[in-house]
Amino acid sequence: MLHTDLIPGLFRSEHQKICSVLCKFLGLERIDIAEDLAGETFLAALETWPYQGVPANPTAWLYAVAKNKAKNYLVRNNLFTTKIAGELSKLASDVINVEPDLSQQNINDSQLQMLFAICTPVITPEAQVGLALRILCGFGIDEIATAFMSNKETINKRLYRAKEKLRSNNVSIAVPGPTAIAARLDAVLKVLYLLFNEGYYSESGNELIRKDFCAEAIRLTILLLENEDTNLPKVRALMALMCFQSSRFAARTSLSGDTILYDDQDEEHWDHELIQRGVYWLHKASEGDSYSTYHLEATIAFWHTSKEDSPEKWENILQLYNKLLQLAYSPVAALNRTYALSKARSVNVALDEALKLGLDDNRFYHALLGELYTSVDIKRAIRHFQLAISLSERDAEIQSLLKKINKISSQPLTS
Fold first, then answer.
1. According to the model, what pLDDT value does residue 50 have?
2. CB burial class (10 A; 0-12, 13-18, 19+) of residue 404?
């Protein structure tokens, strides 16, 4: 493989590991230095490999360079004698033996500890997600700006302020003890949930699915599951939800990039191995007496792994949405609940409920009304599809809505 193909892949898979270990090694107050050293490591590969050839073990080469750069930084900045030497009671001449531990176990521990450090309540949820994307997932500022539908300057300022708060509040890189995990685990899970959702239905650009975002959310969730203190029912439920949702990736878009809605998806294109993995984690999540919004959403997603259009299926989904809205109201859940109501009861009952929501500035609301009105009032259906188009900025979504309008426009008008 050419270095031009290899390095971007290694950057995505190894940058966040190197960065997390260096943050732990140097201290969270030097998070910018850790980022710079990780970046310099890959720059060294770009400068060296085209002329000297790709090393036999590229990952080991990167780790070795990262270690040397971290050690050189300590020597240059006299950090060894002022911080590390005091803690380890070693002479400055021993600096050559002090280096970051890039073993797989320490990489996993460092990433998990960084995740909890980033999800401190001293920074905003948006900043938590931004730092997770930057430090733990290796995303560039441009990608983060796109995900937040913002610009580079705004994202840079947000991340800078977040890092300053981490420094000023002396946030340490460590997983809280078992009794303290509950205080921060919900924030950690929210970050992973938001990260996955941004990938599952991207609000940025014209790409419907960002599989890389979803993969990173799953990878970080696995770290939680591998730690006995964080392998809890709600973490397993979130993992089940991610598995169920990921199983339909291949069926959600056509070869031309058009959106394929659930009812039109080819079940043969679903990943049934992922579905079985989701069933496993959902079963494990049922252990214990507590349940969370992730349990409810995962169970809803489980019912969607069957294309059978039965009253039992939609009644179960409807009741799950009722419970979900009681636990945590959201417009998206309310819209999905209304669709389930149309399938479990009737379109007219669902329309009555939908009109009460009054989400006039929400494109999904108008798309739902378009779907519901299609069978009872084509003129109104077209009007709401057009409103959805006017509120959308995604080409694929707009094309899908236009196809719906063209399809129902050929039907006899109702009023």
1. 87
2. buried
User: What CA–CA distance (Å, rounded) separates 76 from 90?
Assistant: 18
Residue indicated by tokens 């240059």: 76
What value does the CA radius of gyration of the chain take, rounded to a whole number of Å? Answer: 25
C-alpha distances in Å from residue 388, one per residue of 186, 206, 362, 383: 33, 16, 8, 9
pTM of the model: 0.81
Instruction: With a cut of 80, say whether residue 134 has pLDDT above it.
Output: yes
Q: CA dist 285 to 160, 247, 375, Å?
A: 37, 19, 39
First to last CA, the chain: 62
Please enumerate in sequence order all residues whose Cβ is within 8 A of that of 23, keeping only pairs 6 or more positions apart, or say none: 30, 31, 34, 110, 114, 135, 173
- Cα distances from 124 to residues 158, 184, 191, 269, in angstroms, run 9, 13, 11, 39
- Taking alpha carbons only, the member of 211, 133, 146 closest to residue 394 is 146
Give pLDDT, residue 341: 97
Local structure of 339: helix, strand or coil: helix
Least confident of 59-73, 98-112, 221-235: 98-112
Residues 177-195 have a mean pLDDT of: 83
In sequence order, what E strands does 8-137 have?
none
Contacts of 334 (CB under 8 A, 6+ apart): 325, 357, 359
